[in-house]
Amino acid sequence: MQLYRSHVLVCGGTGCTASNSSKIIDELEVQIKEFKLQDEVKVVKTGCFGLCAEGPIMVVYPEGAMYTMVKVEDIKEIVEEHLLKGRIVKRLIQGAKADDVDASIEESDFFKKQLRVALRNCGVINPENIDEYIAFDGYKALAKVLTEMKPEEVIETIKKSGLRGRGGGGFPTGLKWEFAARQENQQKYVCCNADEGDPGAFMDRSILEGDPHSLIEAMAIAGYAVGANQGYIYVRAEYPIAVNRLNIAIESAKEYGLLGKNIFDTGFDFDLEIRLGAGAFVCGEETALMTSIEGHRGEPRPRPPFPAVKGLWGKPTILNNVETYANIPQIILNGPEWFTSIGTEKSKGTKVFAIGGKINNTGLVEIPMGTTLREVVYEIGGGIPGGKEFKAAQTGGPSGGCIPASHIDTPIDYDSLIQLGSMMGSGGLIVMDEDTCMVDIAKFFLEFTVDESCGKCPPCRIGTKRMYEILERITDGKGEEGDIEKLEVLAKNIKASALCGLGQTAPNPVLSTLKYFRDEYVAHVRDKKCPAGVCKSMMKYVINNDICKSCGICAKQCPVSAISGDRKTQTPYVIDQEKCIKCGVCMEKCPFKAIFKNV
Amino acid sequence: MKSIAELEAIRKKTLEQINLRSTDKEMRIIVGMATCGIAAGARPVMNAFVSELSKRNIDNVSVTMTGCIGTCRLEPIVEVIDKEGNKVTYVNMTPEKAVRVVAEHIVNGRVCIDYTIGEAEKE
């Protein structure tokens, strides 16, 4: 048994892999051999740590020193200074203070307020090694369930915990399992929604890449609770690393007899298969997802009957999100009271958020329900870059809405967000600042849903397109009197009549931005102005000749040669508005800040 | 794997190896590992600590390295720090002394006075 005195954990999530973390791991192995440390230091490829803005991330234990933005060229120094001589390389540590040898991952502002339940193993274990999962109590919950609990008791436990669906709907998980369990004497199925279609969301991806066994264990527990022996994981094909790690995990679980026939000698059989998505957002909707698994085009169908009664191939099926499942083993091991002690009255536990947009610490965080938006933006998120003003935060992706600055002290939970006109969604949180145009944002999300509409029902197929056309005109400076009212009427009708969640929630970004930022819409339509200076048709770049020093840098940088002037004769420089493509490079490069956005 | 006992065995075995991935420790053992320390033989001392702690299944103590502590003639130097921050500095360490420090100081809370810097300075 090899005993190492130090473990170097390198993030192997998709984000860091795209930044060469695999090459970093290779270089580490090379340098460690060079310095003859191969029997003392172990290199481990783990899942996502969450601080994606500073990747590639590398954590060295036992110190817990977190190295950020690691480059392959830094590795020799880290191995020689830290691993060999014990001197932490301070310049590469996130937020290192002057003499803080401790610079430990747990002291970091980013991690201090987090409570990692679903993400507990991400960044800690090697996801391709089932033994490491087992070391941190893996499969203990399954063992407990199969040998000490009856199916009804498992369902009771999940009901008591108050766990609600983390895919966005927030439906009580225990209740869903109970509906399926009640269906008698039939082939039943357990499914996992790993389609994660929301743009910018990668919570589920990180769990799949960093801790795939937690999903396998939870699905087996679910199977036992409802009476199913077969499970399907529907994962989007755009997640190759996640699919690969899932495959490895399922193989290892089968090898150990944790999947298959007669698990732990209790007579319980459970098998798991992966089904790949093919790029359709609508296949994240439960009935469309099941239709896709059955081999048809992913289209939703009316409910009732709900999948728990009639799902895959007409049989009782439960479908839960990856993050919902990731909480199950811990609830079984620690008890439902532990889970209810976290969070708010009606929203128990934690939620994983993928924070993006105008924020310093973009990445993945897991926080107890009830944490305020202010804490997320300013403490965990590190504030807005450039010291800009916070304007709003969008939650729920294309199905959600925005929370304006006036509500920044809202505690985040299912019900408080719905009250504000938004929704929790799957966990995408986009932060926007004073330079964001809310009409443009609504248009962005609607463009997505129009593209992804399956086309089955007219309200969505036709309605969303008409809404999008109105938004296009508005942002193009061609808004007409009555456009805003038309948007509102369309939105209400689509919400009331669309067949599935995609259509029913597509108008949300528009309704939400209208609710809090109506003045921006009015400015676009009535005054033909974009207050944030984003909509290109309604803004122009102008050179202030009083400040301009005729240096000519802007003209050189302009990609379409729209700027004229003469350095030698000191003629002031002027932008030809006909040629200008509003790219903004001139303003960025002007050393005298003489170029402005004129709205 | 057919039994829970087998699961438990894998858990125990692997946990011993990856246990150091946590910074929540009761005591810290810091081994001076600068050039002077390495030259004086700090590596075997460090490895002796690691393996003795593992043998005794002690998982709430971390073993880390540091640079030059200053008194190079007394290397290998090891500092043992408890939760309250009380520090004991052991000097002229060897792998054999490391084993004794684990047994007496870490497990039983009795400082090995004759290995400390205080004793060494007296001479």
Count of helix runs of chain A: 23
Q: For this structure, what is the CATH homologous superfamily of chain B?
A: Glutaredoxin
Unreliable stretches covering 5 or more consecutive residues of chain B:
none
**Main sheet strand line-up of chain B:** 2-1-3-4
Determine and state the CATH class of the largest domain in chain A: Alpha Beta
- What fold name goes in the CATH topology slot of the largest domain in chain A? Rossmann fold
Tally of distinct domains of chain B: 1
Q: What is Rg of chain A?
A: 27 Å
**CATH-defined architecture of the largest domain in chain A:** 3-Layer(aba) Sandwich
Report the oligomer: heterodimer
Largest sheet of chain B: 4 strands, mixed
Main structural class of chain A? alpha/beta
End-to-end CA span of chain A? 69 Å
Structural shape of chain A:
globular
Supply the CATH architecture of chain B: 3-Layer(aba) Sandwich
Question: Largest interface: which pair?
Answer: A-B, 39 and 36 residues
Instruction: Say what the CATH topology of chain B is.
Output: Glutaredoxin
Observed structural traits:
heterodimer; A: 599 residues; alpha/beta; Glutaredoxin; Ubiquitin-like (UB roll); five-stranded mixed β-sheet; 23 helices; 38% helix; B: alpha+beta; 5 helices; elongated
How does this structure look, described?
The complex is a heterodimer of chains A (599) and B (123). Chain A starts with 5 loop residues before the first strand and ends with a strand. In chain A, a hairpin with a 5-residue loop joins strand 10 (350-357) and strand 11. The model of chain A is unreliable at 97-102 (pLDDT under 50). Chain A is globular and about 90 Å long. In chain A, the strands form five sheets. In chain A, strands 7-8-6-5-9 form a five-stranded mixed sheet. In chain A, strands 11-10-14-12-13 form a five-stranded mixed sheet. By secondary structure, chain A is an alpha/beta fold. Chain A is built from 23 helices and 18 strands. Chain A has five domains: 6-110, Glutaredoxin; 130-339, Rossmann fold (3-Layer(aba) Sandwich), CATH 3.40.50.11540; 350-433, Ubiquitin-like (UB roll); 438-525, de novo design (two linked rop proteins); 539-598, Alpha-Beta Plaits (2-Layer Sandwich), CATH 3.30.70.20. Chain B is an alpha+beta fold and 123 residues long. Chain B has one domain: Glutaredoxin. Chain B has five helices and four strands. In chain B, helix 3 (42-55) packs across helix 4. The longest helix of chain B is centred in the N-terminal third of the chain and has 15 residues, at 4-18. Chain B is elongated, with a radius of gyration of 16 Å. Chain B starts with a helix and ends with a helix. The A-B interface holds A 1-7, 9, 40, 61-64, 84-87, 101, 104-106, 124-125, 131-132, 134-140, 143, 147, 256-258, 264-265 and B 1-4, 7, 10-11, 13-18, 20-25, 31-35, 38, 46-47, 50-51, 54, 62-67.
